[in-house]
Amino acid sequence: MRPEELDRTDPEGAIAAAAARVSNWGRWGEDDVLGTMNFLDDETRRAAAGLVRTGRSFSLSQSFDMDGPQRGWRRRTNPVHTMLDTGTDAVAGIQGFPHGLGGADDVIAMPLQCSTQWDGLGHIFDHGHAWNGRPADRVVTSEGDRITGIETAADVICGRGVLLDVGRVIGESGELPDGFAITEAHLAQTVAAQGSTSEIRRGDIVVVRTGQLSRARRDGWGEYAGGPAPGLSFTTADWLHDTEIAAIATDTWGFEVRPNEFDVAFQPLHQVAIPNIGLFIGEMWDPDALAAACHDDGHYDFFLTAAPIRITGAVGSPVNPVAVR
Amino acid sequence: MRPEELDRTDPEGAIAAAAARVSNWGRWGEDDVLGTMNFLDDETRRAAAGLVRTGRSFSLSQSFDMDGPQRGWRRRTNPVHTMLDTGTDAVAGIQGFPHGLGGADDVIAMPLQCSTQWDGLGHIFDHGHAWNGRPADRVVTSEGDRITGIETAADVICGRGVLLDVGRVIGESGELPDGFAITEAHLAQTVAAQGSTSEIRRGDIVVVRTGQLSRARRDGWGEYAGGPAPGLSFTTADWLHDTEIAAIATDTWGFEVRPNEFDVAFQPLHQVAIPNIGLFIGEMWDPDALAAACHDDGHYDFFLTAAPIRITGAVGSPVNPVAVR
Amino acid sequence: MRPEELDRTDPEGAIAAAAARVSNWGRWGEDDVLGTMNFLDDETRRAAAGLVRTGRSFSLSQSFDMDGPQRGWRRRTNPVHTMLDTGTDAVAGIQGFPHGLGGADDVIAMPLQCSTQWDGLGHIFDHGHAWNGRPADRVVTSEGDRITGIETAADVICGRGVLLDVGRVIGESGELPDGFAITEAHLAQTVAAQGSTSEIRRGDIVVVRTGQLSRARRDGWGEYAGGPAPGLSFTTADWLHDTEIAAIATDTWGFEVRPNEFDVAFQPLHQVAIPNIGLFIGEMWDPDALAAACHDDGHYDFFLTAAPIRITGAVGSPVNPVAVR
Amino acid sequence: MRPEELDRTDPEGAIAAAAARVSNWGRWGEDDVLGTMNFLDDETRRAAAGLVRTGRSFSLSQSFDMDGPQRGWRRRTNPVHTMLDTGTDAVAGIQGFPHGLGGADDVIAMPLQCSTQWDGLGHIFDHGHAWNGRPADRVVTSEGDRITGIETAADVICGRGVLLDVGRVIGESGELPDGFAITEAHLAQTVAAQGSTSEIRRGDIVVVRTGQLSRARRDGWGEYAGGPAPGLSFTTADWLHDTEIAAIATDTWGFEVRPNEFDVAFQPLHQVAIPNIGLFIGEMWDPDALAAACHDDGHYDFFLTAAPIRITGAVGSPVNPVAVR
Asked: What's one Pfam family here (chains A, B, C, D) (predicted)?
């Protein structure tokens, strides 16, 4: 779909049309819980191991702490990490352990999508339907996602990662401005500029760098999260589907461009991608150090493991994606 | 050290002697925060990628849910996962999103060591000293671990994993009994039985399967966690040091044998291993599916990524370790 | 209703019949959010202040800590209280405050019904209907109770309290056995034994002591909460309605007798009392010290303030009820 | 102390001098845990019950929800309230209860001082000393306040409340401007203007209305909490001591004037009042509805119950203070 074809006044129509074009419902059977992770098979993973050339590894995770981007929207706070036991206590001699042992221990309370994360397949619904056409109220209740909980993807998310540094190729000083909608043309232009190692293949985990995180790191989060940001255009829905990628992640809060490209809308590309394509979306990743290394030697693909925490029934999960190249 | 040399009445003396033998303080400079992770270098990691033969991946994580082993000891509960938004709400039409979008979102409150985890270097102290000789009260306060927080290891924990299925080699029906202390001799016997792929090398991440998890899965947790379990003998301290492994993990709550091997003691091997050796210890991992595959084809090494969540200042972290073989 | 009339095989029929007899739907208008708290008016409260004779005050709250009765049923844990700042940190000099100031601060994560509590009117539904006949899915969503949230009762819950020490009057050594169903006859017998100060009047807050807490305090909680306990018989539904009391509380986890009085049932009296009568129910109160004082001087009524924490949309709330007599 | 005597450059000297004048250490024995609550005896409480004239009750609590004033300072967030079970789930028929019963249940994660609260005696230290001269590191560790935890005051905090509506008497349109320091003279002027019912007596719980909450309610919280606000002047330390009040509360985040009255300082009056006087301080109360009623009939004293939640070891507690008049 070309951006100029978007009717800003009709998100519902555009979503319905896109969903009709890209739906993968039933593609992997009616019991499927993995969606596009089905593209990431053992052979793909085996081949991806061959991309490790130097053995250097990069975490693509942002920090989990009170300095994060959350501002309380829909009860999403930054993580609150507190200690059950501390070194100061140990030194004060109050812990009661024998033979000079001291300990520190901790707890956390956090939204599962407060920092670097995967959206699970139960995160977004389209007109009451979850991935594979299931009624949303049969899938996600107060007890969590009873069918497509993130634990179902605990084993599979490692394979070929490809960085598309759109910020560097299209932006200025490596950054796209807020509100910039990345189209299929921009993605193609990025692949072309980066060279053959960034060619997109079936089963890939694509990491899109917009540069917005670099800017936030420099200027502060302000009233983010949820505010203006560069991101994928709604019109990339077909690309997301046709490329048969396993997953895609960005360095922004919301993956798609904010504000969205309709007059009144909220994350319309999510509504197509998650319940209809069955696509795994990563948000708030940190590709900056990896991007520098890719730029240095011109290799943009790598072995990527991005294993969600095995929280039963979760519709999202913190993740520390590690790229090895 | 041989098990028969242990004086059950003097844990403090045994710990001091072992610490003197195995201390790595200063080995990587006074500013070091990585301990034995220094053994896991790029070359080790590059070579490990070559272990991927079929591309099949295995999560070594237990579940994070209310069915876990915690019983409230020192305020360690099982994780409490709750929903901010659900599919039932979406279908009820109360979410207020436009164009038919519905969403589910969730939060979690949990001890960082409630299920599959890494102990960070700030987790245990020896007579008020943390890793590398630092005063514990300078390292871990109520604000968390200000020096060796788990975020310092966010990039590095991927490389060669080796499974030592002691439960299968030494135990009955694949399980060691509770209270069984795994000695250096047992480890050697396991390596010998499994063959050359399980030879231990510098920088390895060793996964010890005791079989206790298989038993708990069958019989329930009971009043675990913290109760009797098989685990490493205190006398393996030298082996842990001399092998120059990067990390070691077990399928039990506490890594070392429980009850401990002294008349009055609490986790004495931790006191040697974490602050003195600088060793990363994994607990409550689930090696069962991987072990079956290793047994099937006789290959016990694999590429392992076990990236902690990047929680600033954490002394431990949930992890979903993924083995690819 | 007499206990012998209960058909153990037909809880649904019994509930429907009781609901038909005792329903207060519409009694205070269709917008009502206070249910039986409407009985507790200013004049009742004014008169209750006259019950203060010595000025001695009694907290009727159990503790909020990890030693509580919860065992994880439906994700109800005991409260997890952790520190953000401590005295050990202050003394270690790491807090960064000027002029010698040090501080301690704390957080809590807890089910709202983990210890001494009020059930709000949104806590229980009868065949999809909440208090006053509202559809349950219009009342309580993931955002909480949007109509009868506990905050609506923030001002009103103080007035005349009356202790009915059924444990002392009917039980042995002050305790009713687990599984003992307190009937209307037992309540009448208790009033008669205690004398005129325990006569029940419109707008009263009735505190029923079963003695089970005294037993738990002595013997430990065991696998409680939710297990066998003395409590109100299903057959007291009419009494609860006809007395026009504002609220009733017990010293047990579940208010009504456990196991319930039907072959297959779960808290059937709740299903009548909360959505149909609109009754406020308190659970896990601690009346023991108050009961001793009442017994000493024979006065069983007092001024009681039991103000829920003003948590917007909560269907229950921790409370520290304070009786002054 | 007169405000003009304050040396803005020497908070530490001013604090030491004030502490020397007002210290109550040892006044109630070395084991004391109640501080100024010792002034609130049964006779005081008995007399206070006589203040109830109409029986109308007023909650002085602000809301506990995500719209609160917290902005993450020192990990203080607004409360996160989530549901374990909902009405939408009940109606969707997924709860598994028998006989048509449905339920809703909830949890909360919150700082104990996120909204209407008491500061416990373990909240603030003066040069490493807690209330009554105890070493702070013997009192408050990661396990909480082991001596003066808020549970020690669970029974006592009800008695005579007096509203000093300084905002109305001294301010414009009922509001003091941010940064306004309320001095002893302002308090005296308020008492004089309000008349004899606001005379301060031993054992009183004084509620000071600055009007800042009214302003925040109208204009929003902005970047509060912790920002500029009216409040008690440091120079009221002697008044707080000499009046022998049991407690004092304000409608602001921090009780004392913000910014504080020294060039570099943080809550210096707390440092005098809590550890030295042993005074209970309430913060973020909502006196507005009560103030209107007091103004209407000229009666400024009332029966006040402000019972903290009985959280073992807490250094602060949410509270729903209820005034009956």
From this structure: Cyclase
Residues A61 and A39 in one domain: yes
CATH of residue B288's domain is: 3.50.30.50
For residue D255, how many C-alpha atoms fall within 13 Å in the half-sphere facing its CB? Answer: 28
Nearest CA in chain C to B222: C223
Rg (CA), chain C: 20
Q: Given the DSSP bridges, would you call strands B247-250 and D57-59 parallel, antiparallel or unpaired?
A: unpaired
Helix (H) / strand (E) element for D17: namely helix D11-22
For residue B112, the one-letter residue type is: L
CB contact A142 to C (< 8 Å): yes
Residue C218, chain B, CB below 8 Å: the answer is no
Q: Specify whether A201 is located in the same domain as A102.
A: no
Token pair of A194 as six digits? 């980066």
What's the rounded mean pLDDT across residues A304-312?
98
Specify the DSSP class assigned to residue C199: -
Residue A6: inside a domain, yes or no? no
Q: What is the mean pLDDT of chain A?
A: 97
Q: Does residue A258 sit in the same domain as residue A316?
A: yes
Interface touch A312/B104, C-beta < 8 Å: no
Q: Tell me the shortest Cα–Cα distance from D92 to chain B, in angstroms.
A: 7
Q: Is residue C6 part of a domain?
A: no
Reading the block at residue B105, the tokens are 């979102």
Domain that holds residue C175: 11-73+111-324
- Rounded to two decimals, the pTM is 0.96
pLDDT tens digits, C58-69: 999 999 999 999
Interval A88-144: pLDDT, tens: 999 999 999 999 999 999 999 999 999 999 999 999 999 999 999 999 999 999 999
Give CA angle at A219 (A217, A224), nearest 5°.
80
HEC assignment per residue over A136-198: HHHHEECCEECCCCHHHHCCCCEEEEEEECHHHHHCECCECCCCCEECHHHHHHHHHHHCHHH
Kindly state whether residues A240 and A149 are assigned to the same domain.
Answer: yes
- The string of pLDDT tens digits covering residues B205-238 is 999 999 999 999 999 988 777 899 999 999 999 9
Considering the domain architecture, whether residues A204 and A115 belong to the same structural domain is answered as yes
pLDDT band at residue C3 under the 50/70/90 scheme: confident
Is C143 inside a domain boundary?
yes
Query: Side chain identity at A7, as an amino acid letter?
Result: D
Cα B182 to Cα B190: distance, rounded to the nearest angstrom: 11
Question: Of A256, A246, A239, A230, which is closest to residue A305 (Cα–Cα)?
Answer: A246
Test B76 with A56 for CB contact under 8 angstroms: no
Residue C316's closest CA among C140, C123, C153, C60?
A: C123
- Asked if the structure places residue A152 within a domain, the reply is yes
Tokens 């209310």 sit on residue? B66
At C275-298, the pLDDT tens digits run 999 999 999 999 999 999 999 999
Same domain, C294 and C270: yes
**Residues of chain C neighbouring A94 (CB-CB closer than 8 A):** 88
Are B86 and D89 an interchain contact pair (Cβ–Cβ within 8 Å)? yes
Q: Does D218 touch chain C (CB under 8 A)?
A: no
**CA D177 to centroid of chain Cα atoms:** 20
Instruction: Please indicate, yes or no, whether residues C270 and C318 belong to a single structural domain of this protein.
Output: yes
Looking at the structure, tell me whether residues D171 and D267 fall in a common domain: yes
pLDDT on residue D225: 78
- Per the listing, tokens 């089910």 go with C111
The phi and psi torsions of D99 (rounded to 5 degrees) equal: 45, 35
Compute the average pLDDT of residues B39-66.
Answer: 98
* pLDDT tens-digit map of D157-166: 999 999 999 9
Nearest to B88 among D80, D89, D142 (CB): D89
Q: Among D65, D93, D109, which residue terminates a domain?
A: D109
Q: Which residue has the tokens 């997953």?
A: A247
Cα–Cα distance measured from residue B137 to residue A87, given in angstroms and rounded to the nearest whole number:
4
Q: Do D80 and A85 touch (CB under 8 A)?
A: no
What is the number of structural domains in chain A? Answer: 2
